[in-house]
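User: Fold this; tokens only.

Assistant: Input:
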Amino acid sequence: MAIETLGAFLKACRDKTDPEAVGLDPGRGRRRVPGLRREEIARLAGVSVGYYTRIEQGQTAAASAQVLYALASVMRLTDTEKAHLSNLASSPPRQRLVREAAERPYPRVVALLGSLRETIPAVVLGRRGDILAWNHAGHELCFPHYPYDAPGDPERRPSVPWSFFLDPLVRDLYANWDDLAPVHVAYLRLTAGRYPGDARLAELIGELSIRSSEFSTLWARGEVADCTVGNMVLAHPTLGRLDLDYQVWLQPESPDHRLEIYTRNDNATADALALLPDPLHQVRPPRHRPDSDWTPGLALGKRPASITLQ
């Protein structure tokens, strides 16, 4: 079945909606459920309680655009959340998971990456956050312990979401990990709505949910967000503290693929980036930790037996 259902997302949004914010009297005492009750959201959206309940429980074939618009308005969803709601509503109720061929970076995206040369660190990301390509500066900045040629091999290419939650070296790199983690999860949920039948994406989300309690907690929030720009503070193993912004650039002909570039926010970071190794340097072997669950195979993104969500 699909990675996420329309009903599950509606319930998550309903639970987060403040009754007072939509004009309801909270009454005395503590409410038994967070957010809105089913009968409350149904009344505010102008539909019957039975009809809304069937939508949330997946017992009706589809909800009309008018009803979805009314529900989104009541819960005051953002434009991104509305897009996700629409994606879920247009998916077949019993979406079949399909394992598609490995992604390849589009020539124009690779050409754009090459035009940056080494003056700006950059990576090319696939739909699931797999790294499809990078320049030497991007590699040394964010993933220096991975082989430089790893993105060229679909079996070895690093996964940003997987590494962010399960690779201790990557986690230690981000000084603002707690700020970035919700963004990673919210964007992964948006992607799941766009590609509800992507078996590889379902396996990734399933594995992260099982192996990372932090991911599981964040996923349960039901948050959705696009990931286009933001701040990241790195505790780099050789360059020290770096304060950067990331910016995501899209190509119309390849909307699945994102070119992510990193720009400095202060002079100290600019000076540090100038010390990045020359592109002709010899690639260092991976650095590993003696953690009990840390193995070279995991470092290269070779994950154990995958879990498919049911």
